[in-house]
Amino acid sequence: MNGYDYLIVGAGLFGGVFAREAADKGKKVLVIDKRPRIGGNCASEMRDGIDVHLYGAHIFHTDYEDVWEYVNRFSRFNNFVNSPIASYRGKLYNLPFNMNTFYALWGVRTPEEAESKLDEQRAAYRHITEPKNLEEKALTLCGRDIFETLIKGYTEKQWGRDARELPPFIISRLPFRLAFDNNYFTDRYQGIPEDGYAALFERLFNGIEVKRNSDFFADREAFCGVADKIIFTGRVDEYFDFKLGALEYRSLSFETETLKCENYQGVAVVNYTDFAPPYTRVIEHKHFRPAAKSPVTVVTKEYPAEFRGHNPLPVPCVLCLDALSPTPESRIPNPEPRAPISNNEPYYVINDARNNALYAEYKKLADAEKEKGVVFGGRLAEYRYYDMDDVILSALTAVKKELY
Ligand code: FAD
Ligand code: UDP
């Protein structure tokens, strides 16, 4: 018999929800995380009364009633509505694509005028019945003007590849509507924790033993020995020593500064959709919680970056036996050499055909590992893009399978 019922690798949202539920069911739980704080990518830190989102802007939104009730157990949420602005060559546009955007682009004033302008813009691409890549998908959806102004630069900076080399599904997440409505999300519930994400996670992990700065792989054997079962939320390819090849990820660098001004950009998120600035987004954190006043402001620039991986040697992919990185000519040269060095975290999975196929092979290994009492969960272990609400739902489902 080991000391703990569960070792949970990762103090992010998946690990936190699982730990909370297991502990409430009377299980003895140990959580470890290689980072110095809890919360995973949703982690935040209070600076000058401003809750600073340390790993990119995190806006909670969901359509799931039960998930909304669940998070409200750990925090009250304010009525923040995400209404980002796009900046293209000095001109500002509303996002998501809506009547305000169409008015700024073309001067159209009614849905009928907008529809007819959109039809005209799409006309040249009617022959594309099954878009093969992101560029084709964008052109068939909204035509050349919107693609060039609001999609191409942002997307190619974000993913480091030409839009013709990216899968179409990436932009199916972008809302598009014929109404004067700047609300980015369509979900019923949306908001930011009233006293910040850090406080929410303190309550989620209340009474649970957490070892920070502890990397599972630094002492794998010892960690495996402490508990009967393991909930693993780290990288699935790393768990298996990259033996089938390394999965690809996209990384980010964050450049954060405190400015001696009360209001820098007047909105929480500005997307930079042209190529000139190397960053994609500028976040002004205080706008997430307007009720909290501060005489200064904290601003973060978000720079997309190549994920270099933790294994220094390129591992051949088991499926194709070549290096997994995109070909050099498919990379967009970084237009700004002063961009900060990436902290080399795997932020975004790259769900293209090759990575999905490789992950399917790792999934077989992960499924077999269940017999040894290891459960894989969360965005790194399941190699998929999860919003916060989806990851909570997935953790609650895993809890039901395990504990009920
Ligand atoms: P993570 O948060 O990544 O947690 C995994 C944890 O495991 C990390 O703390 C990591 O340090 C730890 N770990 C990994 N390997 C090891 C190891 N070997 N040993 C010990 N610990 C380890 N979602 C939304 O709903 N709204 C948003 O606005 C939003 N914005 C986002 C913006 C960005 C830039 C990013 C990257 C994501 C965003 N998301 C957003 C998604 C959200 O961050 C995820 O849904 C959520 O964080 C996933 O939780 P997780 O527990 O699966 O993973
Ligand atoms: N996107 C874009 N222009 C924008 C914002 C997003 O073209 O101003 C594209 C881009 O390809 C991005 C995708 O839409 O990867 C999804 O964006 P979203 O903001 O939903 O995702 P996030 O990066 O916040 O996870």
Short description:
With 404 residues, the protein is of the alpha/beta class. The protein is built from 10 helices and 16 strands.
Structure description:
There is one protein chain. The protein is of the alpha/beta class and 404 residues long. The protein is built from 10 helices and 16 strands. It has helices at residues 13-24, 65-72, 99-106, 111-122, 134-159, 197-204, 220-225, 236-239, 353-369, 388-403, and strands at residues 4-9, 29-32, 44-47, 50-53, 60-62, 85-88, 91-94, 189-191, 209-211, 227-232, 249-259, 269-272, 281-284, 297-306, 348-349, 374-376. The strands form 4 sheets. It has a 7-stranded mixed β-sheet. Strand 6 and strand 7 (91-94) form a beta hairpin. Helix 4 crosses helix 5. The longest helix is centred in the middle third of the chain and has 26 residues, at 134-159. Mean pLDDT is 91; it is low at 311-341. The protein binds flavin-adenine dinucleotide (FAD) and uridine-5'-diphosphate. The site of uridine-5'-diphosphate has 13 residues, from helix 5.
